Amino acid sequence: MTPTLVRNLRNADPSAPADTGTRARDWAEIQERMLAPLYEAVYDRLEVGAATRMLSLGCGSGLALLIAAARGAQVTGVDSDRERLALARARLLPDEGAEGAPAHRARLHESGLPSGAGADGAPYDLITVFEPIGCAAGDSEGLVPALEAALPLAARGTTVVLTGWGPPERCATAPVLRVAARLTESARPPRPGGWRPTLRDDLEDVAARTGLRPDGSGRVSCPFGYADQESAVRGLLSTGLFDAAVRATDRSQVEKEVAEALHPYRRPDGTVWMPNVFRYLVCTT
User: Fold this and answer.
1) pTM
2) At 240, phi and psi to the nearest 5?
3) Which of 58, 244, 55 is nearest to 133 (CA)?
4) What angle in degrees, to the nearest 10, is found between the helix axes of 174-186 and 251-261?
5) Cis upstream peptide for 189 (omega within 30°)
6) 88: closest CA among 111, 114, 64, 104?
7) In whole numbers, what is the pLDDT of the chain averaged over residues?
8) End-to-end alpha-carbon separation of the chain, Å?
């Protein structure tokens, strides 16, 4: 962490989440890579390659897009987080606007969906939602209208992939996330948006509400591994799953209690290792 980031954190309002730029970098540099096995498993199953025209909702800082583009796919990403999207743009379009830059390798949009289909004018044949749901109350509410808006841009019979956390008993991170629920519920009055256990049919419920037909599913091991406890705290807080707890108490308390909850997962060398399972649902329009 640079001195500038240290000063930003110390001067920030303790009742607010960390500076958005800092948190976006923590997500991109620490946390996002934990989900790479999920991206790869989905792409392997669907044989993502040069013929794929993919639309990613909630693309974050672009790692899933980058992996798909490396396989030859034409990718479009949408995200409402401006800071994360800026990092995605730096990864995917480093020479954007420069003479001789590759055309249509990727398209990125803040919040709103693209006005048309893929860059070549053809409709999308794959829509992905790699931001896992099922770990915070109401975390799928914004997903349903986003999917409904995106489906007209896709071809008939398009594949849609939804992702979520696996069963709590298969996720070592679940006890750490319970810190968010406890702190949120301790507020007077209790704050909405806290952590809750994943339910078996979270993904199927979203599919049913958007008229999608489930066509298979899978589970993927995505262990969370960190170089040290500080990196683990920063990575976990970058997910946004602790925001309600921060608003209910303050960031320093949340950081302290998350650090304490990590003790069972610390190794003798100081690293932190938490095995987790994530689930994906393959649907068709």
Assistant:
1) 0.86
2) 90, -5
3) 58
4) 150
5) yes
6) 64
7) 86
8) 45
